[in-house]
Amino acid sequence: MPQKAKGILGLILGLLLALPAWAHEFHTSITDARYNPKTQTFELAVRVFADDLEEALSRRAKTVVRLDRSARVNQLIAEYVQAHLSISAAKGKKPVHKFIGVQEEADALWIYVEIPAGQVPAGQVYVQNALLMEVFTDQTNIVNVEVGGKKRSVLSRAGESQHVVGL
């Protein structure tokens, strides 16, 4: 193989090996929240990067936390989400979540929870999403809310983690 071809191949391999480091230079979570009138709950699917969540859980627990399928880690995740994410029909109310589970997806996790809401929220809901903001100053959290076929989205950043969503 000619020297020039070896150099190009080396450059390409170097770029491919560095790709995972480039792939996660932003800090974003996405939450899809749908109101289920049958159960009168908000059903949430929350997507976060696994390494970011590990960092947040480790800081909170003051010990290294590795994501696994243990009851201990699931409890830590449930408590963390309860403390940092809420949707309610009443301002300032933080209903207790029902932790459903976690699903792995490449370098991310989907966290599933239900939040009791009562009857169909009329007019507006209150959203608070401060996930990972204590870890990353550039954290951005997107929340998509759907109630009765109406969809709205809000964007949370440091200092702007609480929103009123008109429906």
Description:
The structure is a single chain. The protein is of the alpha+beta class. The chain contains 3 helices and 9 strands. The protein has helices spanning 3-22, 50-61, 71-84; strands at residues 28-36, 41-49, 85-88, 98-105, 108-116, 124-129, 140-147, 150-156, 162-166. Strand 4 and strand 5 form a beta hairpin. It is globular, with a radius of gyration of 19 Å. Mean pLDDT is 86; it is low at 9-23.
Summarize the structure.
With 167 residues, the chain is of the alpha+beta class. The chain has helices spanning 3-22, 50-61, 71-84; strands at 28-36, 41-49, 85-88, 98-105, 108-116, 124-129, 140-147, 150-156, 162-166.
Task: Set down the secondary structure blueprint.
Elements: H1 3-22, E1 28-36, E2 41-49, H2 50-61, H3 71-84, E3 85-88, E4 98-105, E5 108-116, E6 124-129, E7 140-147, E8 150-156, E9 162-166
Parallel strand pairs: 1-7
Antiparallel strand pairs: 1-2, 2-5, 3-6, 4-5, 6-9, 7-8
Overall pLDDT metric: 86
The radius of gyration is 19 Å
How are the strands ordered across the major sheet? 4-5-2-1-7-8
What is the beta-strand fraction? 35-45%
**Assembly annotation:** single chain
- C-alpha termini separation: 64 Å
* Helix/strand order, N-terminal first: HEEHHEEEEEEE
The percent range for helix content is: 25-40%
Instruction: Supply the helix-strand structural class.
Output: alpha+beta
* Tally of helical segments: 3
Main β-sheet description: 6 strands, mixed
Low-confidence stretches: 9-23
- DSSP strand count: 9
Form type? globular
